[in-house]
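Following up on my earlier message about LXEULUCI. Here are the inputs again, as you asked, copied directly from the submission form:
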Amino acid sequence: MPELVFFSGTMDCGKSTLALQIGHNRSARGLKGLIFTRDDRAGEGKLSSRLGLVTDAIEARPEMDLYAYVVDELSQGGKVDYVIVDEAQFLTAEQIDQLARVVDDLELDVYAFGITTDFRTKLFPGSQRLIELADRIETLQVEAMCWCGARATHNARTVDGRMVVEGEQVVVGDVNDQAAEVGYEVLCRRHHRRRMTAATARAAALSPDVLPVPPA
Ligand SMILES: Nc1ncnc2c1ncn2[C@@H]1O[C@H](COP(=O)(O)OP(=O)(O)O)[C@@H](O)[C@H]1O
Ligand SMILES: Cc1cn([C@H]2C[C@H](O)[C@@H](COP(=O)(O)O)O2)c(=O)[nH]c1=O
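Thanks, got it. Here's what our run produced:
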C-alpha cells in the first residue's frame, strides 16, 4: 500500500542524508524518483546533506502544483516510482494535499522530510498539514543533542549570537555557522524555554555570580 511518510526531527538530525539514502537505494534497484525541495542551503534545485552529498532536485515553488507535475511527467512517458520531498516544512498546506493525492490517486510512495516547528516553537504550515495527513510519522533515530547533553527537540534562532523569539518564520540558515548574522542551534525544551544557548550557558558559567565562593 503506498504511503505518505513524514520523516521529522530538529535541524541537523540527518533528514537530508536519509532522503539521499532512500533515493540511492531505490535507484540502485532501477526505480526512478522525483526529488523536490525548497530553499535548500546549497541553492536552488539542490538537495544537500551536511555529510557532503548533494543531488539535483526540482525546486517546489509556492505556486507549483505537485500533483499536476507528477501527472505531467507520467503522461509524457516518464517513469515515476516514488517521490521525495526535502524541506517539506516550507511547502504550502495545499501542496501537502497534492502529495496526499499523489499517494491515493497515482499510488506512489511519497517520503517527506522536514522540521516540525520553527524558532518560536510554532508549527510550519507544511509540517502541520503533514501531521494531519501522513500515513506515518517517523522520528529520526540519530538524535541531535542540546549543549547540556539532552536530546534536542527544538530549534533556536540567533541573531548576532543572541537567541531571538520574534522575526520572519523563514530565514534560510545553518547551525554552527559563526560567520552568519542569523544562525540556528538545536536545544532541549528546557533550554529553549530559558533561552539558553551554548554561548549564554558558557558566559553564565564564567560569570563571577556563579563562581564558587572560597570560604572566608
Ligand atoms: N563530519 C561529520 N562526520 C560524521 N557525521 C556528520 C559530520 N557532519 C555531519 N554529520 C552528520 O550529519 C547530520 C546532519 O545531516 P543532514 O542530513 O544535513 O541533517 P538535516 O537534513 O536533518 O538538517 C548530523 O546530525 C551528523 O549526524
Ligand atoms: C528553525 C527554523 C529553520 N529555518 C530554516 C533554516 C534552514 O534553512 C532550514 C532547515 O534545514 P535543515 O536541513 O533541517 O537543517 O529551515 C527557518 O527558516 N525558520 C526557522 O524557524
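One observation from looking it over: The CA atoms of residues 158 and 164 lie 6 Å apart. Hope that helps, and feel free to reply on this thread.
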